[in-house]
Write a structure and sequence with these properties.
123 residues, alpha+beta, Translation Initiation Factor IF3, 4 strands, elongated, UPF0145_dom_sf, UPF0145 protein FHR36_001555, UPF0145_YbjQ-like
Amino acid sequence: MSNLDDFGGGQRPDDSVLVVTTNDVPGHRVERVIGEVFGLTVRSRHLGTQIGAGFKSMLGGELKGLTKTLVESRNQAMERLVEQTRSRGGNAVLMMRFDVTEAADLGTEICAYGTAAVIAPIG
């Protein structure tokens, strides 16, 4: 059995910045839009993982080493996104998205981006 965090990610329930992929948050109003924020990481390929993935791709199945690396990278990008939002006085990121691209054949660039805002409960 694997650790749940090895193959998934996302926000912790106790985080002071809410990150959503929607335009708004039900039950909350946007008091102030701060603007675009992003968290970025570039990861190089691990030779052992690449060799293992090459063999696995011939046989079929999930490339678990690469999956774990991508999860770690996305989580790091998210952490940086949240820190950027906090440092600008926000408590929410609206319309969060990920962008993943190859970085000059040396690795993978992962960017988490969205709109930093201050939100408050309605009522």
